Amino acid sequence: MKDILTHPLEPDVLHQLTQAAALKKLPLAKLISLFENRSSGAAQQRHNIIRHILDHPADFTGKGAVIGFTGTPGAGKSSLIAELCKILTANNTLRVAVLAIDPSSQQSGGSILGDRTRMRSGNKSKNLFFRSQASNLELGGVTHNTFQATRLLRHLFDLIIIETVGIGQSEIDIQYMSDHTFLLMQPLAGDQIQFMKAGIMEIPDSFVVNKCDEERLARTSYHMLRASLKQSKLIVLNAKDDFKNAAKDNIFLTSATKQKGTHELAEFIESLLPTNKAASRDIDWFYLGKSIADQYGKFGTSIMDQHKDEIASRTTYEEKLVLTLAAIVQQVK
Predict the structure, then answer these.
(1) Domain boundaries, the chain
(2) 191 within 8 A of 160, measured Cβ to Cβ
(3) Which residue in 160, 156, 153, 157 sits closest to 60, CA to CA?
(4) Dist CA 145 CA 328 (whole Å)
(5) Of 24, 233, 237, 307, which residue is the least packed, with the fewest Cβ within 10 Å?
(6) What is the pLDDT of residues 62-84, one digit of tens each?
(7) What are the helix (H) ranges across the chain?
(8) Of 55-69, 114-128, 156-170, 273-287, where does the model show the most confidence?
(9) CATH 3.40.50.300 is right for the domain spanning 65-275
């Protein structure tokens, strides 16, 4: 089966990529728009760009760690992420990109993209980049566009923070895209834990109880969450139940408005960064499977499974997609 051909980058695209590597925001935004474009021509350009990046590793030094923040609406995800970005980029050594997913209207299909209004970190460092994305009515909490943008950003930034739409029980796709997932909750949400645990409670690596402005509130929220987690055996807890050492249980108690617990959380996030460029997580297979299932159903995914080793051996997502489609066409014939 024939692979997609690789072509040299056009001069204007190469210039944009060079500027994006220097964290120039306009060229970077244009390239992300190209990665979000679903036309066949854009797919060829995406493939060419990724191949160029992989062939010139010294020019694209992002460590590429992906951190996911998910949680119910109103938990304070945007405000907390803004505070964390202020801390993480304070010394201008860490390059941070934020992808914020905003829900789309069921009626018009439009999206306000309002997370930007709550992301005023006060830090104008070029090392911080923010991008809003609409959910496009896709289920899962993140979108195919988020996946595509992350493919580029992981080569340019050390840390990519993904903020999902406000979730309920089924929006769990963030676990396939991130290296570490945080679930944000509001204080005293313990009575909702058993209701939520069948879905979203099973995917996070760490928990954040935000809006803990008072010690009493933080203490109560920690004990309620810890008791629910201990009962459901979702994470391994320390023997000692002490809210002042909650972080040892991967439970963080924060207040974005009063800057409580935010430095501790930022230090933990920094500890998750690899010492060198992270190996790309194999999220291509998950999103390839979703795309093929949407178009061809179980027939298409069964063909994928039959050619799994050959498809997985290809470098770029576009190569995997072309090979999968060729296998489906061949099977139909």
Answers:
(1) 1-60, 65-275, 279-333
(2) no
(3) 156
(4) 24
(5) 233
(6) 999 999 998 877 888 999 999 99
(7) 11-21, 25-36, 40-55, 77-88, 144-153, 174-177, 193-196, 215-232, 262-271, 284-306, 308-312, 317-332
(8) 55-69
(9) yes
